[in-house]
Fold this sequence. Notes:
The chain is mostly helical. It folds into two domains: 1-139; 147-319, CATH 1.20.1330. 89% of the residues lie in helices and 0% in strands.
Amino acid sequence: MVWEQLQTEQENIYLQLKKLNKLQLKDKTLEGQIEKSEHEIKVYTEQLNRIKEKLEHLESFSFINLYRNLTGKQDEIQEEETGKAAALELKINEAKLMKQDLLKDLQNIKQELNQFNEEQLKRQLEMIILKKESWIKENQPEKAQQLQQLEESELHCKNLLIEIEEAKSAGEEALNQLYNALDSLQTASSYSTWDTFLGGGLLATYLKHEKLDESESKIHNAQIALQRFKNELLDIEELDAKNLEVTTDGFVKFADYFFDDIFSAWSIHSKISSSKEQITRVTGDVRNTLNKLKKKQEIVDKEQLIISDKKNAILNITK
């Protein structure tokens, strides 16, 4: 049937244009996120340089420094400042990793964008719409407006279902990475308890920091996965923001909190415990959002079936 063929062609072009719009939005969003990471690197580096200057000053001779050495304060100050410097290095490393991953995402987006010819797609869509309008006038003029509205709603549903499926996929990946980070922190927590409270010695200290290094990597993987999930949710404009909002900003900045004072033996255990609590909370947020996406998907599926039945009822008259 001519109408069904035209409708299939229109649907294909419509979804391509929607995909293009989505990629353009992601391109802009990622550029902003990369700029934010670059700003963080700059700020942390400036803070680190100030601490380096302070440490150099502590090592130079002065009567104040001499007095601090005699009273035992010099080592305490150096230890505190060195710990702050090490924490800032970790933050800089995390910001650089985030920038690196975001740049990869941006490169992939731009490669996809190069595959589209927006003007050509728009011209093709206009031609198909003109053909459909001509067909309607000849075959079913009294039903034209109703048919057009139904088909617009149907295309809207199909596009929304695609967006929901992509968001669900990103959410599942975020959950997997959160679970990995939680498992890693759990292991680090065990060594931290052994070392800090039970006097585990050099072996426990070594294993603890080895596991903390592993946790740092897992935490970053979870952060970038959550960022990608949030970016996918931005594409679902039709859904209620309050129903879909995932409060992940605290976790995306989780490394900042986790790395602060992390080199103090007595703080490591408490920070790991707090971090585990944060991950558990965010995991719950992601699961709740995935459940809402699933429910919305079911609603849209039903809407699409109803629309399809109504459209077929009109078209069957002309067959």
